[in-house]
């Protein structure tokens, strides 16, 4: 802000203070009556002399809010996608395991059916042989013993086949469960890496926004050098510095019994209390 703008702002503030101090007091209250149109005109003039860096600061703050909102939405989307990926992987692993177990059960049942059919055929063959040898006692006893032996062997073979099928089904189910656990662990690892990358992106974005705020704060809070030229004739390439202007307490009138209104307190507020002022945060 140039010296002329500073003087104009000080004159407007002084005029506002005089209007409030000389205003007609309202009986039985601390309020007073002032001319609205006149005060509004003074406030409009005061707004016109404010530095353009105030609008730039508001724009940067708005961009920061948009960036934070976009980062929050990106984080929510990444979390949702990772959770969906984990659910899909788990469901696929469970379906694969169920299919493997069902196939093993079907195969075992088929083997058991074949063994039972073979046993039945052997028993029927033994019975037929027994019927043909019924004419001779020795042949009859031999056929009966052979049929019983064949039946025992067939039953033992069927039991062995069934046990083997059960063992194979158990091994297949164990392999499917291990594969399911492996897929689930890989999905969890992928989701964790995705979230770590997102955290790094958000950290860099926060650092960039903080550096921008610090640069604006430095430009706004650094006073112009003594003896420097006004902003209107300075080097166009030089950055514009907006010093902070606060009302002087040395020239303020002493406290008296004259009523003072709340708008006066707002009018004499320092420039640091205006919207868009923010203290720079300490970078971690």
- The total count of helices amounts to 5
Low-confidence stretches: 228-284
Strand content bin:
under 5%
Largest sheet: 2 strands, antiparallel
Strand order of the largest sheet: 1-2
Averaged pLDDT, please?
Answer: 76
CA-to-CA gap between the ends? 33 Å
Computed structural class = mainly alpha
Anisotropy-based shape:
rod-shaped
Fraction in helix = over 70%
The arrangement of helices and strands along the chain is: HEEHHHH
- Rg of Cα set: 46 Å
* Subunit organisation of the chains: single chain
Q: How many strands appear in the DSSP assignment?
A: 2
Write up what this structure looks like.
This protein has 284 residues and is mainly alpha-helical. It has a domain at 52-241. The protein has helices at residues 3-21, 36-48, 53-132, 137-221, 262-267; strands at residues 24-25, 32-33. It has a two-stranded antiparallel ribbon. The protein is rod-shaped. The relative contact order is 0.14.
